[in-house]
């Protein structure tokens, strides 16, 4: 296949995203998706960004991060504070950029020492760092402590959210198919072997981790400008686990399944909204069950790929 | 100076509780290289078990302590058999996610059954206190410290002198070689979970008495802190877990006393990140080269 930007597969993807955008917008305009369900829809799109970014770290690179809520918290507060000072899109853009800068610095500080080590240290270090972020936010003047920020103007519109989610998926998928992404895949499969092949394992692990952190902070910014209020206790360990559940349910390493899992879990959460304790028990049991019986997740590493679809059809006709 | 000594005493009693939990983490990690996230919740179950026994059956402190030890030990073995054993040779991420799942199930099942409200713990020990020079020591603190020391000595004896202890050490060095030498690896791992969980059960009862209140999510934070204590001391090392637990306990009380209690959790995580940067193998840990 020739390398063209506008090949058949890419056009098919473009068409798919435009169609889904138009359909969802019309459904919301007409009122088939009411205001209650449109909140769910916004939530699902934010969760898609979070799940895809965590999947990059866990599924593609094989590193276990439990601090995704921390990066989301950084992004949310940076955007929230900026937007309160400058309640327009420029403010949001500056807030997002500050969030990016802060998340990058923090991600580097956390990951460089811990990713040199093998084993589960990253999980604990990221968990600890996410708690530190939350405790700092809880005690700082500018973040208004445990009460959180109120009255953040709602700047997250559906088109913006949709475009951000598509960008997040694009970034992650293209990264996976690039040379550094391939290096990450080989680290996931066998770290020692890839080191022996001359791959600088720490470098690529850090790159994947930082990209994941950036996308999480973007999701946080969109989150802050969507719900008017952000509080430190929205970004606890449980939030990280919620994201992890999406990645694990769908299948680690498959972006298609992360998106599907984010949608499915968004719907399940609405159905089980009144039974939150039972929902948590089910999540726990499902985590254990999936790991024991189908550790690759429901879809495994399968991806929806138009390229393969077209190739297969060509083979058949030939 | 008086205040400092007083805080040291408080830190020692809090630290001994952390040390008891950390022992379970370090033994399990030593033997199957798994961060047992559910360990903190086993400790919560221990607290609830003793709460139910003393409140509804009217038993005293010592029987309650033993019953929750046995209960937690059995729970630990069940968790290992049901959730971890099928994954013994799976990747580490798989095992870790399972552990988080088990922890969720324990927490929210307890919350569902017992309710999410904070329960007041019955007064099992005298709240009497005595003065040692300028420092006030409560009898509860003495009990906590003495019980911890006794259990650690017993544990050290089991691990170093008994046949089972030797098997545990052998499995933690090399599982396959141990199997070839005729050691029943499954039984040894279950025994490790039994010991670790029983210690967590004791810690749960002691915390209930010390803080006077329990709730279904109480296992999370102390569990993590105890894990950090284990990392600090050198994970896999039993004396390391004791030192780490005491250190974390003292650091936390000192920060509460001289800094701000708001930052007492943050300091523990900062210690963790520092130790990972400076000496990842921990204080008493050995640097082990990974073999292909």
From TrEMBL, chain A:
Lineage: superkingdom: Bacteria
UniProt source species: Holdemanella porci
One protein family per Pfam: BPD_transp_2
Coiled-coil spans in chain: none
Taxonomic path: Bacteria, Bacillati, Bacillota, Erysipelotrichia, Erysipelotrichales
Keywords assigned by UniProt, alphabetized: Cell membrane, Membrane, Transmembrane, Transmembrane helix
InterPro entries linked to this entry: ABC_transp_permease, LivM-like
Major place of residence: membrane
Keyword Glycoprotein (UniProt): no
GO cellular component: plasma membrane
Record localization: Cell membrane
The protein's name in its UniProt record: Branched-chain amino acid ABC transporter permease
Membrane topology category: Multi-pass membrane protein
TM regions (residue ranges): 12-32, 39-58, 90-115, 158-177, 206-229, 241-268, 280-300
Keyword Transmembrane helix on entry: yes
Molecular function as annotated in GO: branched-chain amino acid transmembrane transporter activity
Automatic annotation (TrEMBL), chain B:
Pfam families reported for this sequence: BPD_transp_2
Protein name, per record: Branched-chain amino acid ABC transporter permease
The keyword Hydrolase appears for this protein: no
Database matches in InterPro entries: ABC_BtuC-like, ABC_transp_permease, BCAA_transport_permease
Record Gene3D superfamilies: ABC transporter involved in vitamin B12 uptake, BtuC (1.10.3470.10)
Residues that span the membrane, as ranges: 12-32, 44-77, 89-106, 142-159, 189-211, 226-250, 262-282
GO biological process: D-alanine transmembrane transport; L-alanine transport; L-isoleucine import across plasma membrane
